[in-house]
Amino acid sequence: MVTQVDPVLNTKSIMERFSLKGKTSLVTGAGQGIGRALAHGLADAGANVAVIDLDLNLAEIVAQEITIRNPDVKVVALKADVTNPDQVTNMVDEIVKNWGSLTIACNNAGIGQWVDTLDMSYEDWQRMIRIDLDSVFLCAQAEARHMVKNKYGKIINTASMSGYIVNYPQGQAHYNTAKAGVLSLTRCLGAEWAEKGIRVNSLSPGYTRTSLVADLLKTELGQKVSPIWLSRTPQNKMAEVTDLQGAVNFMASEASDYMTGSDIVVDGGYLAW
């Protein structure tokens, strides 16, 4: 008779599985906003972090912050245009060359824009799709080509609740479409790469108080739209960037190893209404 192993008693403790100590990670668009918070969150859990941004100065500032807060983790700041295939490949290759592997990748870089579709130029449309969707494909592909060698890896794409809804009152059809594409791409890659040991999931934030949003809220337009946003959010407040760290650290850790092709929404209840 074969004795069945009890997983509850024979698996590492949940806190040990949440730890990212010894893991190697990258975060794109990490020079500010949500990306900066995600980079800090991974480092807080023990991961080495590559801070990636188009603005190297911003990336270096965040890298310095992480080093001061978590002196035991390795940190590097890199400049990369994540819409450029060669730069994306070089970015990932450099990280693997320096650290030997890539365990966690947060594809977070993106932009936003408000413009009614009747006034939207084709250039606006193409730029949004290129930065918010094409870059996720390019990064995930380059990251997976290394992760597959170790038969393990976590890819986390920043989507948005806007991939599920039509935001109001602002016009942003191109942004919503790009984020819906990120959700679909995440599902596709999660299923396609499951047998290779690579988990692909996404984060969908609701309205989040980044520094750019905070500046917007000081304007006449911001003061006009923010009450509408909050009236549709059951918690009646915007997220802070730190509210997003827990979901990403979970998806980055061993605690979520059976999760792939999924999305975690952190929106204060917006989609529930």
Structure at a glance:
This protein has 273 residues and is an alpha/beta fold. The chain is 46% helix and 14% strand.
Mean pLDDT: 97
- pLDDT < 50 runs, ≥5 residues: none
Portion in beta strands: 5-15%
Please indicate the count of domains.
Answer: 1
Strand order of the largest sheet: 3-2-1-4-5-6-7
Terminal Cα separation, in Å? 53 Å
Beta strand count: 7
Rg, please? 19 Å
CATH homology superfamily name: NAD(P)-binding Rossmann-like Domain
Helicity range:
40-55%
CATH topology: Rossmann fold
What order do the SSEs take from the amino end to the carboxyl end, as H and E? HHEHEHEHEHEHEHHHE
> Which CATH class is shown?
Alpha Beta
Shape: globular
Pfam family, one: adh_short_C2
GO molecular function, one term: oxidoreductase activity, acting on the CH-OH group of donors, NAD or NADP as acceptor
Family: Belongs to the short-chain dehydrogenases/reductases (SDR) family.
GO biological process, one term: carbohydrate metabolic process
Features:
oxidoreductase activity, acting on the CH-OH group of donors, NAD or NADP as acceptor, SDR_fam, globular, NAD(P)-bd_dom_sf, alpha/beta, 14% strand, oxidoreductase, Rossmann fold, 273 residues, seven-stranded parallel sheet, single chain
